[in-house]
Amino acid sequence: MGTAVVVLAKGWLLKIGGVSVGGIDTLTFSESSKQADATTRESLGMEEHLVATRGASISVKGKWLEDPDDGTRDAGQEAVELLATKIDRNSLAEFTLTSPGGAIGTFDASAEMGDRGGSNDEASQWNVKLTRSGAIVWS
Fold first, then answer.
1. What is the pLDDT of residue 2?
2. Which of 63, 79, 118, 125 is the most exposed place for a label (fewest CB within 10 A)?
3. CA distances from 5 to 8, 15, 27, 94, 105 (A)
């Protein structure tokens, strides 16, 4: 096994259902937890808790990709946008993240589209928040 080194964030790859999502500038990973109150009279006035559940999300920010000749969009961006319109069981899709070193994480997530567009002097933005459902499995 080699020595772990700092890797550039631009080396991460994101796919939905095996289709690469293009135009990505930043991926930001966030974790959350829900705590169950475990405080009793024996806690001597100090709060106690247990972590009941854990969650995670990925904020993806990038640029809108489109063929200027025929309007064809990036297939990965379109797949994420379609997922963001779904409800119930159809609101989840399989995603894969590949690290710069080649580690692959597979997980299910829902999508919520963020701001798109921009001003006259900038490239059109494309943003989405992916909320993980279940655990991520690394291989």
1. 83
2. 118
3. 10, 24, 19, 29, 19
75 residue type, one letter: A
pTM of the model: 0.90
pLDDT at 93 (0 to 100)? 98
Residue 115 contacts by C-beta under 8 Å, 6 or more apart in sequence?
A: 125, 127
Domain count, the chain: 1
The closest of 125, 111, 134, 86 to 16, measured between CA atoms, is 111
Q: Are residues 55 and 132 in contact, defined by beta-carbon separation less than 8 angstroms?
A: yes
Tell me which residue range forms the domain holding 51: 9-138
Residue 119 φ then ψ, to 5°? -90, 175
